[in-house]
Amino acid sequence: MWGCLAGYISCFFLGLWPSGYTPIQSFIWSWADFIEALAPAAIFRLFKIDPDFSVKRGWAAKAFPPLIALGSIILLLGIIVQVLWGATLGEPFTTIYVYSVYTGLALALIGVLLGLLVGHSKTWAAHIAGVILASILSGVWGAGTLTLWNLPPPLPAELFWPVFTGWVVGDLIVLSVLSTALLVALTPVFKRTGLYVEGWWA
Questions:
Q1: What is the pLDDT of residue 141?
Q2: Residues 49, 126: contact at Cβ < 8 Å?
Q3: Residue 80: is its pLDDT beyond 70?
Q4: Residue 191: which H helix or E strand, with range?
């Protein structure tokens, strides 16, 4: 739940700036990030799954970390290129960004499938389900509060489906790549410290 609160607070302030929403609009909209963090946490908690993202079988153990790490690096580099140059200069930077996203996603998905096949299957199945559920639920709330229900919605109602589609696809990509890398790298570290909690709060 601490991660859910952190996601909500960061989203709230991002709603104020640079998005320019009112405090009320941002308060309502920011629950999307709370939901996004809550969905996978709830799956692990309700099904009593002890997260183990390690892959220990032969060649898979050697291939898994580079796939996840390389996918994340390529995706991040693509985002940096788009932010610094693609948004203002266009081609060829936009194309570089697109190919970086798809390449990074493909590498990370191969890593996730390896984890599902030769790792702790319950952990990886819960992770995959969490990514999908989090993306859809946060997309519904995020797009809905931007276009349909807010005080008032900052965007017109007819933009719900474009916003929802972009939100879900973006979340699926980012959560599949970056969250996988972070979970693989940090879960063992957190489990050795007091930062890891088995309940909702402690």
A1: 96
A2: yes
A3: yes
A4: helix 180-191
